[in-house]
Each structure stands twice: as C-alpha cells, then as structure tokens.
User: Which sequence fits this backbone?
C-alpha cells in the first residue's frame, strides 16, 4: 500500500513539473493534454479543454482548433484569431498546459479501469478513469457538471471500433432525462469513448 501511494505521489509531482515546463517552453502539445485557456476581455470564456485523440479541441465562437504539434504560443494565436470577430479589438488570450497524461508503469498493482474522454461545455474536461460497467448516467453524475454554455439536449457519445475504425455516434437528450423522461437503455461506457457536450446555440 505504501509503495502504491509513493508511486502515485511521484506521478503527481512529475505531471505537475512537466506541465509547468510545457507552459513555459517550446513544448509541442499532444493528444490527451489538458489546456487552460483564459480570455482577458471576457472571463466567461475561461475554461479547461482536453486535446482529443485527433489533436483538436473545441472553443466557444472559434469552433474546432488544432492543437497537436503546436506550442502554447501558436495555440494562443489560433484561439485569438478564432474569436476575434466577437470583439472590437483583438482579444488577449493566455494558454497554459495544466495536465499531461501519466500512467503507472508495467507491473504496478492497480485496479483495472477504462479511459473515457469528457470534452466540451463541462466544468472538468479531460480523460477520466472509470470502472468497467459504468453507465453514461453514472458517469455524468460524477463528472463535475455542465457550464452555462452547455447544450444538454444534444450530448454525443462517440465510440470507435478498434478493429474497423468505424465510429458510431449516440445522441443523448440529458435535459429530458433530468426532467423525468424514461431511458430504455442506459449506455455502458467502453474504453476510449468520447462524450461531447456541445455549445448551446442562440435561443436554444
């Protein structure tokens, strides 16, 4: 038990050190990294975003932005350019790397989990480790909640078949469920699933 605790503490501090170094240098952002984005002129846009396996992330007004292979400076410019039409003057954007995935080494004793990616208009985006058999409603109950921009009627669960590469999309109306609508089959999450909470449209 003490050995596992020591390993976890070592990984935590290593991750924090790597993230700090990444934010200040020429580190190239990779899929799985978590970015903190702040807009000086509009703090309501400030959020953490997860870089998806395809190397991209979504941001209000800017849509989908490529991040993989870019430095934080390049991402700052991309976000600023993407949201510029919403401001009179070019907005001031700050980007930092706040999370770099870490995994325990082979041979370490761990409880088996699966990785699920939570992205979009949520308070705590990023990769999440959950127990096999966790359903989507159970996952949402412990995910930290939605932002005020969330389109809870249009949640998407994206699942890719590792053998064929075919992606299947499940659409979920969480607002209706939270208001008492019946759910015929609660979806059981699988390893690598991506749950997307899109941005709410005007008047939605």
Assistant:
């Amino acid at each position: 038990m003490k050995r596992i605790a020591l390993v976890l503490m070592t990984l935590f501090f290593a991750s924090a050190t790597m993230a700090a170094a990444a934010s200040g240098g020429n580190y190239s952002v990779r899929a799985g990294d978590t970015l903190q984005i702040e807009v000086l002129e509009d703090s309501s846009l400030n959020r953490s975003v997860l870089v998806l396996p395809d190397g991209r992330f979504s941001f209000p007004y800017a849509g989908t932005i490529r991040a993989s292979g870019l430095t934080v400076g390049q991402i700052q410019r991309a976000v600023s350019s993407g949201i510029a039409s919403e401001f009179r003057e070019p907005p001031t954007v700050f980007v930092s790397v706040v999370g770099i995935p870490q995994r325990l080494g082979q041979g370490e004793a761990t409880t088996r989990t699966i990785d699920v990616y939570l992205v979009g208009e949520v308070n705590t985006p990023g990769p999440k480790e959950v127990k096999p058999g966790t359903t989507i409603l159970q996952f949402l109950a412990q995910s930290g909640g939605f932002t005020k921009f969330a389109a809870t009627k249009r949640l998407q669960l994206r699942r890719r078949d590792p053998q064929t590469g075919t992606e299947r999309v499940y659409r979920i109306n969480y607002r209706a469920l939270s208001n008492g609508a019946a759910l015929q089959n609660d979806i059981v999450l699988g390893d690598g699933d991506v749950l997307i909470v899109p941005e709410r449209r005007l008047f939605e």
